Amino acid sequence: MTDDNQPSAAPRRASRRVPIILAAILLGAVLGFAGVYGIGAMKRNAPGDPACRPAVDLAQKLAPLAKGEVAALTMATAPLRLPQLAFSDAAGQPKTLADWRGKTVLVNLWATWCVPCRKEMPALDNLQGKLGNDKFEVVAINIDTRDPDKPKNFLKDGGLTKLGYFADPNAKVFQDLKAVGRALGMPTSVLVDGAGCEIATIAGPAEWDSDDALKLINAATAP
């Protein structure tokens, strides 16, 4: 005999299926979200080039020297290999950052329309004259987009003869550094190790021929 007060088996089974269906829907939504956003998140949070870890270690050793005239330097805290910046030399021959492989380089972006850049150039020229050798070089890249003779004349008129002349009239080097968060204004300088990895970055000018700067660069290039 059937008890009319007892619920039937079918409704009980249906009621048990509801949480299962809801759980399946929720799981599908989570997996879908991960499929859309998960890969991007992993890319954003992925560690930098492991080959650049020594540059980060060096940056931490140099951090106590980032004071005085170079106190505005931001030392690298995560591995970052710089883009292969492309520009040309005084003869118009193509160059990239890879041409300085094995050498510590201070990459500087400047332009004649940038007043702080013009004021900084004599210090960069002096730095190259004092410390430029087979271990270190200042690579100052001009990004004037008009009148290619203007930056050359600026260097000549200022007696800035120790710096090599490098230029990118398309200013793509600025955009390339901006894309990795290393060019927010002018001038911009990035200290790069021999593997093309960031050691430190500074937005704005610095007294690169000061005792503070010389000590830091000497320490960066020490064996």
TrEMBL record:
CDD domains: TlpA_like_family (cd02966). The chain crosses the membrane at residues 20-39. GO terms for cellular component: cell envelope. One of its GO terms (molecular function) is disulfide oxidoreductase activity. Keywords: Cytochrome c-type biogenesis, Disulfide bond, Isomerase, Membrane, Redox-active center, Transmembrane, Transmembrane helix. Its main location: other. It holds the Pfam family Redoxin. Residues 76-222 form the Thioredoxin domain. The keyword Cell division does not apply. One of its GO terms (biological process) is cytochrome complex assembly. It comes from the Bacteria. It is found in: Cell envelope. This is Thiol-disulfide isomerase/thioredoxin. It comes from Rhodopseudomonas rhenobacensis.
